[in-house]
Amino acid sequence: MKQIIQHLQTGETTLVEIPVPQVRKACVLIKTHRSLVSLGTEKMLVQFGKSNLLSKAQQQPEKVKQVLAKIKTDGFKPTFDAVRRKLNEPIPLGYCNVGEVIAIGTEVTEFKIGDRVVSNGHHAEVVCVPKNLVALIPDEVSDEEATFTVVGAIALQSIRLVNPTFGEIVVVIGLGLIGQLTAELLLANGCEVIAFDFEQSKVDLAISKGIKAFQVREQDDSLQIAKTLTKQIGVDAVIITASTKSNEVIAQAAQMSRKRGRIVLVGVIGLEIQRADFYEKELSFQVSCSYGAGRYETNYEQNGQDYPVSFVRWTVKRNFEAVLNAIAKKKLQVNSLITQKVAFENFQEIYSNIVKNNAIASILEYSEKSFSLQDSVQFHHNSFEKSNDILAIIGAGNFTKSTVLPNLKKLKAKIKYISSSNGLSASLVAQQFGITKATSNNENIFTDPEVSAVIITTQHNTHAKLCIEALKAGKHVFVEKPLALNQAEIDKIIDVYQQSGKTLTVGFNRRFSPFMLDAKKQLGNHNLPMNVIATINAGFIPSSHWTQDMSIGGGRIIGEACHLIDLITFLTGNLVESVVMNTMEKSPSLNTDNATILLKYQNGSTGVINYFSNGHKSYSKERIEIYSQGRTIIVDNFRKSIYYGFKSSGFSQSQDKGHFQQFKLWLEKLQNGGEAIIPFNEIINTSQTSICAISSLQKNTWVNF
């Protein structure tokens, strides 16, 4: 199947072949009939892409601050590489999709195969969309009309925030697509609508619908018109749907408002507000977020949990349905907004001149003919000799692109597949790194006899399931930490692993750092007890991030602090005997990112892990202190080490090679038919330790194995 993407670095818009996405839990798979090009939004993305690096920086000053902060902590080259990767990452275009349901995920009961639906899916022949971002289309509404549903919901949400009463005077600034829909919906709500735009054609279109629309020629035109039409009282509310860098729009919106008026922003404008304008009239100002309640909420969108009508009347989906109902009853007439209709494969008729295009709405029409629904696409014709090290990678996220694949490329690894559930990210990565095939179906990997080993880099909650499936399929497995999120998953993995005869390696990479390998060498081969303190200045991550969700990421202790548990296990050469954990919270919680973990090892060694998220960014992210036999080793952020009481004084290097060493050793073991790099009992012990550290929050006692 094909999908339209846009390159942030160049602004180029292209059509790419990708595997058809797999239907996920609480989602539906939709075969697209029509999609709407929202020229305002998509024009901004193309303009941003076509601008030079300096202009991009000027448009995103907050991102520049983040880059400068990252340079201070990570250095110039890693920061430069991260920025370049981000700009090289294409994004899918489109969010107004109409089609028919062709597959239904688990926990979906409100749709059936063949239903005609609208969603916020991209410009693609097939899209997978969460059920709460999908709505049934009434029979009275055509496919073309239904494509306006999502942008209509954006307009409707701004009106709900204004909360106008019958007869109030509301101004709409900007008569692009969303402005036109906003003005018409306000009319249907019983409001008197005044609208402004610089282009006469858009003004004429609004006038034809009964809106008092005016072309703005001078900066103060709109202000004088609004004062005249309200007899100098001022308007009740202003909805801004324009896009401009100027601060003049917000100033005029305030000046034309009556005392205690309301202003809602939908577009993108300059926001240097004059305090006096707002203070004297006690104006309220609010920014409207997308389609309504539930947007960007993980439980609502990804998990399919709806809000009760009695508590949240207008969610995203219910706004979709309200717009469709308005179109069905002819209260919202959208056909006059359609500027052009273009076949999907001829998309460049729209995008090649989109920056200068003054059209309002363009429709992409998808062929009724059958097209490829293959879940695997071949991009390169690599020939692999029969060997023990033909790889497949499940997961095409940032870690795979920035760490896994660059290291495997240096090692000239043989990679036949890369997989992602949406198909797009796998396709882009396959093309970039010369991987033979991209797939959205992991069964293609598990059933291919040529594939001998699988690397798993997906979200944490999928690790156990994918490990078990890969081992059962007779593949060697390398899985990023953590191996599992709970004891039940560990038990299942142990059972399958012991029967498989294959190796299983967990991506605990700190032990492979040259700094730690040298520290281990300097300490010597003895079994005497030592003390190790690992302080992690982890940094703040919002609670909405997937790693903070215990059912998905497992929290930051299981998800990341496990690295340090493994490192101390490596340094001491012993297994953990007991563990206790204290947190900063007064009421112990299963999810924390401010904790101190105390480990007791079989030979008497102790390990302390201080995992904190409330420190300053400029301080080292990781600092390891080792105390043994009157000697001390300090490793600072894996960039510099200092030895006290040793002949060696330590060393430093600009870039840590821990991941590279890890993958190199793993590939060598595969080629030689060796055992897992880390003995499996040690993997299990480390995973159990991180899991038990969490459970000890409730017990507040030592946990023994």
Automatic annotation (TrEMBL):
Domain Alcohol dehydrogenase-like C-terminal: 178-297
Originating organism: Arcicella gelida
Protein's name according to its UniProt entry: Bi-domain-containing oxidoreductase
Domain GFO/IDH/MocA-like oxidoreductase: 543-628
Domain named Alcohol dehydrogenase-like N-terminal: residues: 66-138
InterPro entries, A to Z: ADH-like_C, ADH-like_N, Gfo/Idh/MocA-like_OxRdtase_N, Gfo/Idh/MocA_Oxidoreductases, GFO_IDH_MocA-like_dom, GroES-like_sf, NAD(P)-bd_dom_sf
Pfam families for the chain: ADH_N (PF08240), ADH_zinc_N (PF00107), GFO_IDH_MocA (PF01408), GFO_IDH_MocA_C3 (PF22725)
Record-annotated Gfo/Idh/MocA-like oxidoreductase N-terminal domain positions: 392-508
CDD domains: 2-desacetyl-2-hydroxyethyl_bacteriochlorophyllide_like
PANTHER family: BILIVERDIN REDUCTASE A
Top-level taxon of origin: Bacteria
SUPFAM superfamilies per the UniProt record, alphabetical: Glyceraldehyde-3-phosphate dehydrogenase-like, C-terminal domain, GroES-like, NAD(P)-binding Rossmann-fold domains
